[in-house]
Every structure is written in structure tokens, then in C-alpha cells.
Amino acid sequence: MSAVPAYLSGLRLSGRRVVVVGAGRVAARRLGPLLEAGALITVIAPEATGPIIELATSDALTWLPRRYADGDLDGAWYVLVATDDHDCNKRVSVEAERRRIFCVRSDDRHAATAWTPASGTVGDVQLGVLAGGDHTRSRLLRDQLLQQLIG
């Protein structure tokens, strides 16, 4: 567990630029909630999975089929980095920190300035669970709490 707890907040991303660096399974899993929130998503990755290509083809998001470059965070409100390249992830998070943009890192929760909660919705209630950056524990707790809400 982190010595200092995270501050749980609901981000209103409608019409705001969100940059996702990486286009694999982890990145794809994050896109649905971001699209539902109305975020203007730019995915940066040399290659992408089928679902991301389909979203780009339908203009639901913008895919830049190349490696991340300095300056790619211009105008971003929020950044998610999910590549298998630790050096790239670090470069993105360093630039995000310098620009004061919150950054989720899939490879190093301790180096991230934000964590994505395990979330769910029952009716008009949105539930988000953080367990010190432990995604597995967060998901388990979320599932238990959702069952309680469903009753």
C-alpha cells in the first residue's frame, strides 16, 4: 500500500483531449469508459489491436501509427501510457509531470501520478475502487460492492 493515499476524483473529460500511448490489450480496455465520458482520444502506437483500428476507422478516436514523440501531449488533460517499453513509458510520464498532466502508467504504479480505479455502474450510481494501486484487489472489491448494490 502507498504511504500516502490517492485522492479519488471523478474526471469530467467530455470534449477534452486524452492521450493514450500504446494500443494493446491494456490500452484497449481503457478506451470504452473514456469514450463514454466524451473524451477526445488520441492513441499513439506503431501498431494497434483490431478493436482500436475499428474505433479509429469509425472516427471514434484518432490513431497515430507511430512511436511517441516529445510534444505529443500538447493540449492533453489526461494521459494513459500502456506500452511494453519501460523507457518509452518513463519518457511519457516525465513529459506529463513537467506539463502537470496526470499520467496513468500500466507498468509502474509507483511512478504514476494517477491510477485508474476498478469501476462499475448500477443505475445512476458510479462506483470506483482503488486499493493502493493493486488492480487485482481493486477489481475483487469492486465486484463485491457491486453485488451489494444490486442486492
From TrEMBL:
The keyword DNA damage does not apply. One of its GO terms (molecular function) is precorrin-2 dehydrogenase activity. Its EC number is 1.3.1.76. InterPro entries: Met8-like, NAD(P)-bd_dom_sf, Sirohaem_synthase_N. Keywords: NAD, Oxidoreductase, Porphyrin biosynthesis. It catalyses: precorrin-2 + NAD(+) = sirohydrochlorin + NADH + 2 H(+). Pathway: Porphyrin-containing compound metabolism; siroheme biosynthesis; sirohydrochlorin from precorrin-2: step 1/1. The keyword Ligase does not apply. It comes from the Bacteria. GO terms for biological process: siroheme biosynthetic process. Pfam families: NAD_binding_7. PANTHER family: SIROHEME BIOSYNTHESIS PROTEIN MET8. This is precorrin-2 dehydrogenase. It comes from Microlunatus endophyticus.
